[in-house]
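hey can u check if this looks right to u? its 293 residues, i copy pasted from the old doc so theres a chance i mangled smth
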Amino acid sequence: MTEIFQRFGKPLGGCFVVLVLLWLAGMVLVPGIFMINSSLRPHLPPPLRGGDQDVYLFDNFAYLINHSNHGQIFLKTVWSSALVTMATLLLCYPVAYWLAQVASKWQMRVMLVLMLVPYLMNEVLRGLAWYIILALAGPLNAGLMALGLLDEPVRWYGDGGVVAGMAYAYVLFMLFPICNAIATLEKDQISAARDLGSSAWRIHWRIVLPHAKVGVATGCVFVFMMAAGSYVAPALLGAPGSRWFTQIVYEWFFEIGNWNRGAAYGVALMAMCLSVVLGLLALFRVNLTSAIK
């Protein structure tokens, strides 16, 4: 905060601080308190709200625990989000290293343009594009059949399609933090390690990855949180039996109309995401301020 005052002066810096605090209060604190308060109260008709039956209980959370199907979907969402995170990490790390340490300026510019152009469309259109690609008569089946890898079309919709769609949707949120972190690594360190006989695997394990751990942690946090809270990709690419936890939250709010139970499910998802974020930061030994810089 002192840096803001030193850079912009006390009047302008104070305005920035007030605006940030108002944004945090209006967009984070107040909605969070409302969700927690609603999750602990029973679903009652308007005439009974505020009466003797309107007390704080844990019944909405107990319903999630006791409803085995919803609990399984919750755990599947956690596991699938972790799978999306791992897939994007494995895909982005070599690309990020090439962009930051190997590619020339014109190669980097061309690559960045090619990667950014699809993201000029919104997430719904990109999801629909994947819906067409994975369709029974889509180009994926046509290409695999033309190569002789399939005898008949395969239905790709389901958990696999959702993971693929999410990995594509959030790949840049993993790529850019890692690329920015690796770009600050001096090339002389890599050259010195190579001259001393280190293998490529050892160079990455002992030099590049420790240096880029802040970027890796930031990318993992971003991708996991967005995957766990995604609704569009599961709705478009998921099969009837591959539901996502966010779809259940949506049903409680907007189809069933039980906002209290929907709030409890939302709070459970938020608590899970927060636990995973703190766990990732502890795993990479990165503090929160370093991850969001």
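Residues 174 and 219 are 4 Å apart (CA to CA).
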